[in-house]
Design a protein that fits this description.
heterodimer; A: 114 residues; mainly beta; 7-stranded mixed β-sheet; 4-stranded antiparallel β-sheet; 0% helix; 53% strand; B: 114 residues; 6-stranded mixed β-sheet; globular
Chain lengths: 114, 114
């Protein structure tokens, strides 16, 4: 079975803290993605990666960075958390198969920044 | 640029009845894929069904079917015999280039009433 795991389901941090959100997949997928989800806005892409040590900016990369040192792991980093980064964060992965390929999601992390 | 529109923020349906969730898309490409995901209150995104632009038959998966009207650029999800467990957010998504991230609509919240 396809499996994407995220390090925390719920996280509470303070403004200015450095925050790490970890995502691990066990399907040997090349592609990994980070989205944030806010009510009324749907899912918005933050960053994605097609291979180890490679990263591409999505639609809303400001205030975030990512790291992919191993194929199975993709980390989202909030360098200095702010209250407007309170959101649901979803990680996904997919193989390289073109338009037909399904993205598989982790359970999500609900981050609250106080 | 590709775009997904879901015009129904929320819908109600009686248990055991069928319901249609609307999705329209915009792309200039001939080759693209359309996806539907379900997100229960737990937060995890669950893949439901896929339709390719060149598929001549509408996709079906159990109680889910996709009413694909290419000329109208619509890909509506039909859920037959609704169950209480179908209450969730539903997202339409598409990809119109090989190996790129999915683009999502803003979602429709479906509530099934006993």
């Amino acid at each position: 079975d396809v499996k994407v795991t995220q390090s925390s389901r719920y996280l509470v941090k303070r403004t200015g803290e450095k925050v790490f959100l970890e995502c691990v997949q066990d399907m040997d997928h090349e592609n990994m993605f980070w989205y944030r989800q806010d009510p009324g806005l749907g899912l918005r892409l933050i960053y994605f990666s097609y291979d180890v040590k490679m990263k591409e900016k999505g639609d809303i990369p400001e205030g975030y960075s990512v790291s992919r040192e191993k194929k199975e792991r993709f980390s989202l980093i909030l360098e200095s958390a702010s209250t407007n980064q309170t959101s649901m964060y979803l990680c996904a992965s997919s193989s390289v198969a073109g338009v037909t390929d399904t993205q598989y999601f982790g359970p999500g992390t609900r981050l609250t920044v106080l | 640029a590709q775009k997904i529109t879901q015009t129904q923020p929320g819908m109600f349906v009686q248990e055991k009845e069928a319901v249609t969730l609307d999705c329209t898309y915009d792309t200039s490409d001939q080759s693209y894929g359309l996806f539907w995901y379900k997100q229960p209150s737990s937060g995890e995104m669950i893949f439901l069904i896929y339709q390719g632009s060149y598929d001549e038959q509408n996709a079906t998966e159990g109680r889910y079917s996709l009413n694909f009207q290419k000329a109208r650029k619509s890909a509506n999800l039909v859920i037959s015999a609704s169950q209480l467990g179908d209450s969730a957010m539903y997202f339409c998504a598409m990809r119109d280039l090989g190996n790129t991230p999915l683009v999502f609509g803003k979602g429709t919240r479906l509530s099934v009433i006993a």
